[in-house]
Design brief:
Number of strands: 20
CATH topology of the largest domain: Trna Endonuclease, Chain: A, domain 1
CATH class of the largest domain: Alpha Beta
Order of helices and strands: HEEEEEEEEEEHHHEEEEEEHEEHHEEHH
Structural class: alpha/beta
Largest sheet: 5 strands, mixed
Shape: elongated
Distance between the termini: 74 Å
Length: about 325
């Protein structure tokens, strides 16, 4: 019964294409059975071979921001198990028919992908890529969005993920597989395999992996990276010195000096820059300016005063500039609060 229904749907699409083309002033008629095309079109100059693809109604499109509907056409493959692909000499163009709306669209063979989704008018403006990349970047709470998309906050999340995985595998098995590589034919079985613990020949094995151990200074090891870096220090302990050029407003001078001292000696679990990163922080003095707006001007004055800093990689000029700018910004934010 199912095959009969599918055959009737296909025939309805072919007759609709013929009627549509005749109303457009062309000559069109159904082809013989067993040919790779369904309709022959006479445009007055040549005969064109047209393959008709018909769908009864929209279907749910997977892997979108939210479930939406579209007319889905599996175009390029044909034959038993969809093993064959239409060649450029077999078909000139494809006609896509939506029976519920009585609409027909045409595309040339060389412009046609393997699968095409046509959007539903009632859903226009609700598809992910129609929202625009700007709206997509407005996501603030990334953690919450990840949980929402992974269904972690929904009841019965494991069952929903299982159903979506099965639906995706079934669609892949229809749209993509079988893969034909020379004499090799690869099929995708959408029925999930069972997992087994222990030894079982021919079955997928489940094994638990432990957290990798990370090595820190003096060959100390622990899988906890935060504990390792604060307790033992970085793995590479080559000594280095970074000269800071701190710049802030007059009112924040003492706070800037206190901040640098905390970076140097540490606080709470942080053991300081020298113990943790083998890096010694030094500075000659804290440069002050009357207002935050003058911080960048002071940076430029220092560069004008020390032109040898520019382009001299031995002076770690990038580190100097970054430290001056970031510390100045800290002073600016603290003062405006």
């Amino acid at each position: 019964m199912r095959k009969s229904n599918e055959l009737q749907i296909g025939k309805a699409g072919e007759y609709m294409v013929c009627a549509d083309l005749i109303l457009k002033g062309l000559i069109a008629y159904p082809s013989e059975q067993g040919l790779p095309y369904d309709v022959v079109i006479d445009n007055g100059k040549q005969l064109l071979k047209c393959q008709v693809k018909t769908t009864l109604k929209p279907r749910i499109v997977l892997q979108r921001k939210k479930e939406t509907s579209a007319y889905i056409f599996h175009v390029k493959r044909h034959g038993k198990y969809n093993n064959s692909i239409y060649g450029l000499t077999e078909v000139d163009l494809f006609a896509l028919v939506c029976l519920d709306t009585r609409l027909v669209g045409y595309l040339k063979n060389d412009e046609m992908p393997s699968t095409i989704n046509l959007r539903v008018d009632s859903m226009m403006g609700q598809y992910y890529d129609e929202q625009g990349i700007v709206n997509y970047q407005k996501v603030i709470d990334l953690s919450k969005e990840i949980k929402r998309h992974s269904l972690a906050s929904q009841p019965g999340a494991s069952r929903i993920r299982f159903e979506k995985t099965i639906a995706t595998s079934e669609q892949l098995s229809e749209d993509v597989f079988p893969l034909i590589i020379g004499d090799l034919r690869v099929h995708l079985n959408s029925t999930p395999e069972s997992l087994y613990r222990g030894k079982n020949v021919g079955r997928l094995q489940v094994r638990t992996l432990s957290e990798p151990v990370v090595e820190f200074s003096h060959h100390k090891e622990t899988p906890n990276i935060r504990e390792g870096i604060t307790s033992f220090g970085a793995y590479q302990d080559a000594r280095k010195t970074i000269e800071l050029v701190p710049i802030c407003t007059n009112t924040l001078r003492d706070k800037m000096a206190s901040l640098i001292n905390r970076l140097k000696v540490g606080k709470y679990k942080y053991g300081g820059s020298e113990r943790t990163f083998s890096t010694k922080l030094v500075y000659s003095s804290v440069i002050t300016v009357p207002s935050p707006e003058e911080v960048l001007d002071e940076c430029q004055r220092l560069l004008d005063e020390h032109p040898d800093w520019i382009g001299n990689t031995l002076l770690d000029k990038n580190v100097r500039e970054a430290a001056a700018y970031s510390l100045g910004e800290i002073g600016h934010k603290a003062e405006t609060k």
